[in-house]
Every structure is written in C-alpha cells, then in structure tokens.
Input
Amino acid sequence: MTESKPLASRQALLVSWIGTILIRIVVPAWIIFGALQKAVGGTPKSLPRSVLDAGSKLGIDDHFLLLASLVSIEFYFVAFMLFCSKFAKRAGALMLATFLLVLAVEMFGYGNFESCGCFGEKSLSPMAMFGIDLALLLGILLIKPRTSKCGPNKGNRTLLLVSTFTLISCLYTFNAVMQHRPATAIANNNDNGREIAEPLPASWYPKDISSWVGKSIDDVPLFDWVEDLPSTIREGKQYVIFYSLTCDHCEALLWEYFEFPTVPTTLVAIPQSTNGFNYDGAFENPCHDCDKTELRIGVDWIVGAPLVVALDNGAITCATENEDYEAPACLIH
Output
C-alpha cells in the first residue's frame, strides 16, 4: 500500500510534466513555426480564402496588412504560453480552437482540401493540419500541467516579458511582411497601349467568381490587367485560361483538352510572385494554337489555377477556379 502511493505520485508528476511541456514548449513552437513561415514568405497567398473574405467584409482590403496583423496576433498569444503560466492553457486552447474553426470553414464551407496556408504558401493539407491541431487541443485540455513557481512567472516579470516578446515579434512581422508589399500601380495604359480601367492593386483574388456569369469581360477588372488580349476575343465562343507555369493541374488540363483545341483559346500566365515569373520547373505547353499572354507583373495574384472562363461574344457564360480536368465545369459551355 505504501509502495503504491509513491508510484502514483511519480506517475502524476510525470503526467503534469508532459502537460507542461505540451503547453509551454510544443504548442508555442508549433504556432511560432507556422507564424514565421508566413512572415518570412510575406505573401497573402498563405491566408485561407475564408480569412481573406472575412477581412474584406471587415473593410480590410490590404491583404498584406491583414497577414501581418494576424501573424502578430499569433505571436501575442504565444507570449502568454511562454511567459505566463496562469493564462498559458487558455491562450493555447483559444489559438488552436480558432485554427480548427478556420480549417473547418475552409474545408466544408469552401471545399478546399488542398492547402490551408498554415505554414505559408506551401503547407500541409487542411485535413492533416486539422488532425494535428485537434490532437494538440485535446492534449492541453485533458493533461493538467504542473504549477510553475519559477521566477519569470512572478510579479511584473510576466507583464514585462509578454510585452517585450510581443513588441519585438510584431515589429519583425510587420517589417518582414510589408517589405514584400509592392507599390500600387496607377498606370492608365498597359505596355501595349490598351486602356486600363482599374489601377493595379498590391494583391488581388476573385471574391465572388459566380457573379461574373452574364457580364462582359469589360466589366471584370481581371481582364483589364491582362497584358494583351486578342483583338477577336469578343467574337463567338472562346475560352480564357489563367494558369501557372508550374501548376500540375493546369498541365493536366491543357494536355487533356487543348493539345488540339477545337475552340479559340487564350492562355494567360499568372506571375508566381510580384517580381515576375519563375521558369524553373515550368511544364511544356501542349497548346501551340492557343493565343498566349500574361497578367501584369507587380501584383500578388491569389488565383486558384487553372481559372477557366468560357465566353460567348465577349460575355462570360461560365467561370471557375481550380478547374478539375477529370470533371471540368466550364469546358462544356
């Protein structure tokens, strides 16, 4: 009987240490890694589409500012996990619960099971991230950490450490992100002399692509930012395909349907970054009969490629992002 008590005590101590390591080291390290990847990458592409839409509804149209603000908030909560034992568990639980909510909306509301941007532009699948975040959340909720009695968690030291960490991380984040933000272009003409109705934004994504149907291409700003559309673009049935040079889905779509196109087709290349194109790993374009052009450089284009637009005498009859080559939605129009 007396031997069982020390054993139980040691087991309880071990479990409490696991809980402490989880909430004070593992979870903050997990969040810091993702936040750093997004800050260093400095592109709004790392934000889920649901977050971009939420920011737009709140009137935040500067996606770089939105990215820097959200990453700074992540660092703010990390500060409590690292330096304030009293609120560490609550801060970690709130952050992980928020991540799970965003991932759930992204998967089941937006149908995005490809990438969530949690680790920057290149990330794990939303389902994998959901599983990891859920496991961590259950861990910190079910495993009680030991009570911390160390110096940094006492008195005004906590406030000083939290404030210092937050200030330094916020300054770093805003500097890292905003230096990637291009200056907004106010040009009136593109390089080919075609009038531009809309100035170039710093970043852009299609907010409600379904609303394009029935509109003329002249009423959709994206077409104003194409370098040089064919003069016959408003004649008869045509396709316009916005694609990335290194997109596997784009390559599959073009090989499947456009090696020998039966409908006039214009291919619009999307710059991978605000600095232009990266031709390393670019696929061989099979459509030799397609007209080829590109979107203007200097914008962080947040477009799900391939973006296929079907036209009939210049009017949009169908438009969809991430067109599935196995079951295309717009190629039948």
About this structure: The first strand starts at residue 203 and ends at 204. Residues 185-194 have pLDDT under 50 and may be disordered.
